[in-house]
Each structure stands twice: as structure tokens, then as C-alpha cells.
Amino acid sequence: MGVPGGHAQQNILHYLSRLHSKGSDDWLPTHGAAMRSVCPDFCAPIIRIEGMLAGPTYGDDKPTHRRQFYWPSRYTPDTDQEKHMNHPHAPVRLLAHESLPGITEALGNLDGWLMRDGAHWLVTRHEGTITIGKVDAHPSRVLADRATWTDPDPYTSGTYCSPLPEGALAISSRRAVTVYEADGTVRWEHRHRDRQHSPGASGACTPDPAGRVLLATMAGPLGADGLSTGDICRALDLATGEVLAEHLLPSFSAAYAFQQFPDARPEVLLTASMGQDGTLCLLVTRTDSGLGVRATGTATEACVGVGPEGALVIQDIGGRYLTRTQDGAAEVIIEAGDVLPDERVFVGCTPGFVDDKRILVVTAEEQWAEEGTHLLLDAHTLRPLAELTYPRTPGVTAVPLGDGTWLVRDDETVQRWTTA
Q1: In which domain of life is the source organism classified (predicted)?
Q2: 324 C-beta neighbours (distance < 10 Å), count
Q3: In contact, 418 and 386? CB cutoff 8 Å
Q4: Nearest to 314, CA basis, from 342, 349, 265
């Protein structure tokens, strides 16, 4: 009846589980403690199926960690915190996988994952080549197609790429915004002031949802005192590069990123990360009279996921809380300590909407962890719904696609998953 080669703790739990399955409650424990280092594969599933485990399990690298566990027939959680820290487990199913060299570095870049024209895109740089991959609308594949360009400046940081209509590409660099045709020829170049005294600053660009202008952020003009008056956003004619409108931004010397919304809203999201001066989240709209720029509620973080009807999920850069904001709805804020086990925080930079009802986030014990727990949350309340169960422990990056699937990186391979 025991597990061949198993240790005593495994076989005791196996025995108790067998008794419970035969209808006997007399031998069930009221509570107990298990060293997480010895039971990640066998004991933990038994505890989680027959009872309740207050926290995750780990491998042999954490031999001193312990967690309490309880059986529901003998114990009922008496605090909201305990209830929320014991989430149901949801198995997942691998749908597709595809090699994409450079994806590891890409998902740490501001343009590594983009929402453009109702589709998701992955942007990688590898051995002097820029690859733009469009995520397939059908879940049986990762990429529908990919296009490559020679990187015009492979040794300079701070460049930002965006796919354009008809297979073109826009690149924002420290000195210019350039649009390339699908065959690699230059359509036009718009030069601007170099941020030579702001090494951490970088511009960004995106076509507007109508596909007629290119929105681009860049360093603004100098004032009479020789100091910058702030960064600017310009609307450039997508065909000619002509400046059609300009708006002085409330941010300065920032690292920028654009995201469109999945439902073709006229607004686009612009995040402006200013280091110790914080982050601004702005909504930019091209209008007949110029450019409209407004703040998105009280959001002040760079890790933002875009959802339907203008919904945003924003993750604190330190992983301490999540915020959901949307025009016409009250902001929802949830702290990590209220829904996660002790010392765990939200990690990664890609919180987002799996579909209209679920948000996917990643948690770990520290921000620089290489492995994490993937957690589904209610898309409106942010309350935990389930912890995803993979064949082996996943990394800390998960890119939700809004269609019930999401992407996970495994070395230089991109995998597409869904719930089983």
C-alpha cells in the first residue's frame, strides 16, 4: 500500500488518504505540518485534494520551510486571509510551442510584447536581426507569421519597435523616428533632439487605431534657460512623416511604452517611467484639433495589462498590490498580503486579461525569482480563482492573450497554454 521508495511522511499521508476514500473519517488528522522540501510531488497533491495547504511547496533548496495543513472535516478557516491563500488548482494544457531566439531578452524590453491593430505581437532582437512575430488568432499555433529586418543600430540601447499596417515597421531611437517598408527601404525619417544627458530615457511609437498617423514620444525643445521643457508626443503622418500635431507631456526624461486596446478604442495607453520620480499612465487620442492626453485614474505603475472596454490591470513595481481601473467604474485595489502566503509578492511585468472574466498574474517569494506561481484572478474583483498547475514549475513571465490562452517562455521557446 505504500509508495515504493517513499519516505515515511509520504506513506502516512497515502494511508490516511486511502482511509478517507473508503469513507472513514475516524483517522483523519485535525491539522499537521509538513516540510515542503519533501512533498512537492506526492504529499502536496494529497493535502490539497483531501484538505487544505496554506502555501506552496518547494524543492530541496528550501529544506527549512514548513507550512500548516488542515482537513476540512476537522477544521474550518476562520479568517478571510486563510481562505484566500488556499486556492483551487486548475490544470493546464499545452496547445503549441515555437522556437523564437531572443525571446528571453525581449520580454524584459518595453516593446517585447505589443498590442497593435487588435492582435498581439512579439518583438525580438538576435544577432543583428529584428524579428516581428504576430501571434496567431487560432490557438493551435503560436505565431501566424514573422518578418525580419536588419537592426540599424544593434549596439545601442533604448530603441523601440512597432509593427505598422501593410507589413511596415517603425523604430524610435535616441535621435530619430524612422519608418521602414516591408522590404527594408526607408519610407521617411523624423529627427529630433537627442537625450544625451538622460541615458535612462527612451522614446516609443505606435500607429493610432485608425492606422493613419504615427504617435511618437521624444525629447521636447529646450527653454530659454537651456533646460528641457518636458517630453513631447507628436502625431506624424504615416505616409509622409509630416508633423500633424504635438502635445507637451507631463513627464520628462522618461522611458515610454505604448499599448493599444484589444477592442479598437480610439485611445492608446502610454506609460512614462521616470525612475525615482515615478511613473505616469496616460491615455492619448488623436483628434481633429490635435492630440488629447489624460491620466488613467490614479495609476502610477509601468506594469499594465490592457483589457476590453478600456479596463486596465496595473501591478505595483514592487509587487505589493494590484489595481484595476476603468472609466465609469470604481477602482479596485488588492494587496499581496491579503491574497498570497507570507512573503510572496506579484512578479513579472505582464499582468493581463486571459479573457473577459479572468486575469493572469505571477507570484513568487522575491522579485528576482526565476520560477513562480501563476494565479488566475476574477477580472472585476481581483479575487483569486485558481492556481495553475503545470507539468513542471513555470517561470515568472506569462503573457495573457484575451482569448482564453496565454504565452509562457521556456528558454528560447514560446509556449501557448490554456486551462484543461
Answers
A1: Bacteria
A2: 26
A3: no
A4: 349
Q: Which three cell numbers stand for residue 418?
A: 490554456
DSSP string, 262-294: TT--SEEEEEEE-GGG-EEEEEEEEETTEEEEE
DSSP string, 357-418: SEEEEEEESSTT-S--EEEEEETTT--EEEEEE-SS---S-EEE-SSSEEEEEETTEEEEEE
Rg, C-alpha atoms of the chain? 24
Burial class (CB in 10 A: 0-12, 13-18, 19+), 152: middle
Contact between 283 and 268 under an 8 Å Cβ cutoff? The reply is: yes
For residue 27, give the DSSP letter.
T
pLDDT at 9: 52
Strand ranges in 1-88 using DSSP code E only, listed in sequence order: 31-35, 52-53, 66-70
Please give the average per-residue pLDDT across 372-396, as a whole number.
94
C-beta of residue 258 within 8 angstroms of C-beta of residue 269: yes
pLDDT value for 17: 54
The residue whose grid cell reads 483569486 is 384
pTM of the predicted protein model: 0.78
CA 38 to chain centre: 32
Q: Is residue 313 within 8 Å of 307, Cβ to Cβ?
A: yes
- Dist CA 313 CA 381 (whole Å): 11
Percent of the chain at pLDDT > 70 equals: 79
291 conformational bin, left if phi > 0, alpha if psi -120 to 50, beta if neither: beta
* Gap between the Cα atoms of 128 and 137, Å rounded: 28
| Contact criterion met (CB below 8 Å) for 410 and 385 | no
